[in-house]
Amino acid sequence: MGYLFSDPTFWAFIGLIVFFVVIALVGAPKMLTKMLDDRAENIRKELDEARRLREEAQERLATYERRQREAAAEAEQIVKQAKHEADLLREDAKKQIAERIERRTAMAEQRIAQAEAQAAKEVRAMAADLAVEAASALLQNKLTKTQKNALVKDDIAGLKSRLN
């Protein structure tokens, strides 16, 4: 037995046992277990937070995608509405132009008719003047004074009957 107490391995073994006993008495395993449990709890909380953030990000992504689809549909509707309004405006402009052309054509035709009537009136007046001049010249050359007076009286009588 004396040999055991002098052996350094024995003392190292005893020191190791004392060390484990002191550690056990101080509560190191409980502290170590508590630290590991706390660490596991922190990791679990971080994982839960990461899951929550991931779900929130997915919800936001879905919301943004939905809003993007709605905006695209609204833009498409606006474009469709604008095309429809442009078509209506184009048709209205065509109608207005056609109406203007019709009015101007009618006005031009009316002016032409007036000009024709005026020209015909002037031609008739000229023809009447020429006929009067020719008749006058003929009558002056061929008729006697009595014949002229008789013609004037007949014409006056004809005018009286027409005016009454």
Automatic annotation (TrEMBL):
One of its GO terms (molecular function) is proton-transporting ATP synthase activity, rotational mechanism. It is found in: Cell membrane; Endomembrane system. Signal peptide: none annotated. Residues 33-118 form a coiled coil. InterPro entries: ATP_synth_b/b'su_bac/chlpt (IPR002146), ATP_synthase_B_chain (IPR050059). Keywords: ATP synthesis, Cell membrane, CF(0), Coiled coil, Hydrogen ion transport, Ion transport, Membrane, Transmembrane, Transmembrane helix, Transport. It is a single-pass membrane protein. F(1)F(0) ATP synthase produces ATP from ADP in the presence of a proton or sodium gradient. F-type ATPases consist of two structural domains, F(1) containing the extramembraneous catalytic core and F(0) containing the membrane proton channel, linked together by a central stalk and a peripheral stalk. During catalysis, ATP synthesis in the catalytic domain of F(1) is coupled via a rotary mechanism of the central stalk subunits to proton translocation. Component of the F(0) channel, it forms part of the peripheral stalk, linking F(1) to F(0). The b'-subunit is a diverged and duplicated form of b found in plants and photosynthetic bacteria. This is ATP synthase subunit b. The gene is atpF.
